[in-house]
Write a structure and sequence with these properties.
By secondary structure, this protein is mainly α. The protein contains nine helices and no strands. The protein is 79% helix and 0% strand.
């Protein structure tokens, strides 16, 4: 994934506020998606979540907190501290991929045979983790090219934040549009193209061009999602997912 973009301006006048706005929108999706679900879980006195779910949640919230701090540090001109925290961020990202996969398997197995069970959903979970891991790795490779690095990190976060957005509006989309490859893709992943379009529009307005790393990362991530949804609705994947879950 080439950083490219020799003529791509590394900074624009409104960057300080725009990238903080994108992070704020990501926080909004996470809070609107997960907080009502947690409150409902407690009010209905449902069984406690497995320990791995709490660890997984702490790690992912920690990532969002770290991202917010990192954006604020760059906004405040403290790139030196930003770079030092980046080492911790790389380790946290690797941990999140492992935790995410372990949590997906444990929760999917726990819900199997219940109204909440959906073994094929493993494809969606794997897609999110694959996108996150690959894009963070690319961001680390291009860490010395700030324009590529920041966009790849934002893309990586966007491609896991859909878990919050889909909980927020996914059911409404499904009720309205029904089920199918494109309907399910919209229910699961609509936030991704919207946020990608927001960043792309901003870059076109401020730079008159899109960064090659941003384009490549977006195409990669959206392609992975389409393949995942195709698998999700395919009968063969249900059999394979059950096998992978050890059920």
């Amino acid at each position: 994934m080439a950083a490219g973009g020799a003529r791509f301006a590394p900074r624009a006048r409104w960057d300080r506020d725009f990238f903080l706005l994108v992070v704020g929108l990501i926080w909004l999706g996470i809070l609107m998606g997960f907080v009502p679900e947690i409150v409902s879980h407690v009010r209905m006195h449902k069984p406690a979540f497995p320990l791995v779910v709490h660890i997984h949640a702490a790690a992912f919230v920690g990532w969002l907190v770290l991202l917010t701090v990192q954006v604020a540090l760059i906004r405040g001109g403290r790139a030196d501290i930003h770079r030092k925290l980046g080492v911790f961020g790389a380790a946290l990202a690797a941990t999140m991929v492992v935790l995410g996969l372990a949590t997906s398997v444990i929760v999917d197995r726990l819900h199997y045979g219940t109204p909440d069970g959906d073994a094929p959903f493993l494809a969606i979970q794997i897609a999110d983790l694959l996108n996150f891991g690959v894009l963070v790795a690319a961001a680390i490779v291009w860490r010395k090219t700030s324009s590529a690095h920041k966009r790849l990190i934002l893309l990586a976060t966007i491609f896991i934040a859909n878990a919050g957005f889909s909980r927020w509006w996914g059911d409404s989309i499904t009720k309205l549009a029904g089920s199918g490859v494109w309907q399910d893709w919209t229910a699961f992943f609509l936030s991704d193209p919207l946020l990608i379009a927001l960043i792309g529009t901003y870059d076109l307005l401020t730079r008159r061009r899109l960064h090659p790393a941003f384009v490549a990362g977006s195409v990669f991530g959206l392609t992975v999602e389409i393949i995942a949804v195709w698998a999700y609705v395919s009968p063969w994947w249900k059999i394979e997912a059950i096998r992978l879950l050890g059920l």
